C-alpha cells in the first residue's frame, strides 16, 4: 500500500520543494538546540569503521554507536544510539519471525544486528527494574502505535533485557501466524483428543517448543525444574509428578501430534513455578489482539440458520495454543510479567482508521487484558531520525551523495514522515 | 503528507493541465507542442541556476515558449533520465506505478547482493573491487551490452540479404536496455520474480558476462560473417 502511495507521490517532488525547505530550516534549528541524545553520543561513539576503509568515493556518515551492549545498563543517556547484538546471541534469543522480514534482510545484508535505544523499550525496562514482581500479579505492558514505528523492535530490545535478567521467556513471535499462515499451504490442525471442539496445531506447536528450548537453554539447565502435576499425554507417554520439564519438552518436539497438549502443560507448570518463586517468567506476545478475534483461515462445517452458509471460520479462541497463552493472562499467579503489542496489521479487514488499543482489542480483548500499561511507540524524533539515517549511511545502504546533504536528509525526512519503516523503504532503491 | 500528495495529484488530474487537446482522446497530448515553437524543459537545478545568472540566455529564454514539465520527472536525486527510460521499457499497458516499483525493487536487490558481499569480504582489496551503487551497475551493464552494428534485410535480385549496417548511438542504447528487460522477463522458473532475475542479469552484464553480452557478441559475429554484403547498403 505504501509503495503505491510513495511512487505516486514522488512525481510531485518538484511541487513539495518549498515545503521541504521549510522543514529543513526547522530541523537545523532544532539540531542546534543541543539535544541530549546527540550530545551524549559524542562522548560515547566508538570506532565506527569495523569493516575497514570503503572505496574513496562511497557515501559515508559517522554513525551514533554505543559500546554498551548490555541492555541492563541502558539509561536515558543512550537514547537515540545504536547497540550491537552478537550473532550467536541473536540466533539463540530470536526466532526467524521475531523481527519483520525487511529488518531481518537488512541484518543479513550488514552481517550484524543492531537496535536503536528508544524511549518505549527503555521505560518498560525501567519499570521492571523498580517493581517487586514476587508480591504482585504479573503487570502487563502493551506497545501500541502506527504501522512501522518499531513495536516489534521494542519488544526485541525488551526480550534481550529479559534474557539477561534471567527470566524464563514464553515468547510467541507473531500470534497471528497460528491463525493465518503467510504460506500457500496452511499448517496442519487436528481436533483435540480431550475436546473435539478445540483444535491442536501439530508442526507449529513443536516448532514453538523447539524455540522455547533454545531460547531458555541456559536457564532450564540451571534451574532443573520438576513438574508439579502428573501428565498423561497418551497411553504410553505418562509423566508422573516430579519428572523433568525438559523431558516433557523433548516429547513435544519429537511427537508433533502431542505438541499442543505439551505446550498447555508447560504454560501451567511455569505459572506454578513462578508463583512458588523458583523462577521469574515473562510472557511475550507480539500482535496480542489477534488472540481475541473471530478470524482465521481455517474453516469447519457449520450450517447457519439465517444465511444458509455451510461453513464458518474457526475463531481464535478455539485453538489449544491460543487458549494456553490467554490462560497466562489470568491474575492467579505472581512473579511474572506480560509484554505484548497491539497491532492492526493482523486484522483481517486491515482497518487503518485508528491504532487505539480499545478499538483494536475489542470488548473481549479489552476485558482479558484490563488493567494494562499502554506504551505508545511514536515515529522518530528529529534526533532519532538523524541517528537512524547516519547508521544506514555508515553501512553504505544509501549510495547517493546528494541524499547525505542537509537538503537531501530533509527531503527524506519529509517523505518518510520520520516513520522507521517508511525510511527503510524510501532509502532502499537509492 | 503522503496523503496530501495523493490528493493534490487527483486534483491536478481533474483540472486541465494542458490546453484543449485537438483529438477526442488526449493520447498525444504532449505532441501538440511542436519542437520549432516550444523549447524542452530543464530538469536540472544547477543548470537552471546557471541560466538565471547569465543575463544573455535569460533574456533570450524570457519570451520563448517552453513545454510543460513531465509529471514523472523532477530535480531531486530520486530522478534519473536513464532510470526513467528503464521504467518506460519495463512498463506494460501504461501502468507506470507498477513499472517504477519493479525497477526500485531491482535496484534494491542489486544493492543488497553487492553490500552483502561487501560486508562479508575479509580484505580491503576485495572490498575495493565491489561496486555497490545500483545506478552505476545499471549504466555500466547497458554500456557493456550496446551493439555497434545491426543486420538489415535488403532485397537485391529477388534474394533477401542480411546486410550489416552501423547503428546510431541512441538506437544502441534502446536495443541494449530492451535486451536486458527481455532477459529479465525470461525467468528460469515462476518462483524467480522479475526484479530478482533482472538484478542478476544487470550484475552479470556489468561484469561482462551473462547472456545479454553473449547476445551482443553473437550479433557482431553474424555481422562479421555477412561482411561480403556490406556494399548492398
Automatic annotation (TrEMBL), chain A:
UniProt entry keywords in alphabetical sequence: Mitochondrion, Ribonucleoprotein, Ribosomal protein, Transit peptide
Broad class of the protein's primary localization: mitochondrion
Ranges in coiled-coil conformation: none
GO BP: any one term: apoptotic process
Pfam family, any one: DAP3
Subcellular location: Mitochondrion
Keyword Magnesium: no
SUPFAM superfamilies reported in the protein's UniProt record: P-loop containing nucleoside triphosphate hydrolases (SSF52540)
InterPro entries from the UniProt entry: P-loop_NTPase, Ribosomal_mS29, Ribosomal_mS29_met
One CC-aspect GO term: mitochondrial small ribosomal subunit
GO molecular function: structural constituent of ribosome
Family designation: Belongs to the mitochondrion-specific ribosomal protein mS29 family.
Protein name: Small ribosomal subunit protein mS29
Organism: Hyalella azteca (Amphipod)
Automatic annotation (TrEMBL), chain B:
Domain Small ribosomal subunit protein uS7 intervals: 77-227
GO biological process: translation
Superkingdom of origin: Eukaryota
This protein's GO CC annotations: ribonucleoprotein complex; ribosome
Signal peptide: none
Keywords from the UniProt entry: Ribonucleoprotein, Ribosomal protein
Recorded family membership: Belongs to the universal ribosomal protein uS7 family.
UniProt cross-references to PANTHER family, sorted A to Z: RIBOSOMAL PROTEIN S7
Protein name according to UniProt: 28S ribosomal protein S7, mitochondrial
Gene name of the encoded protein: LOC108672079
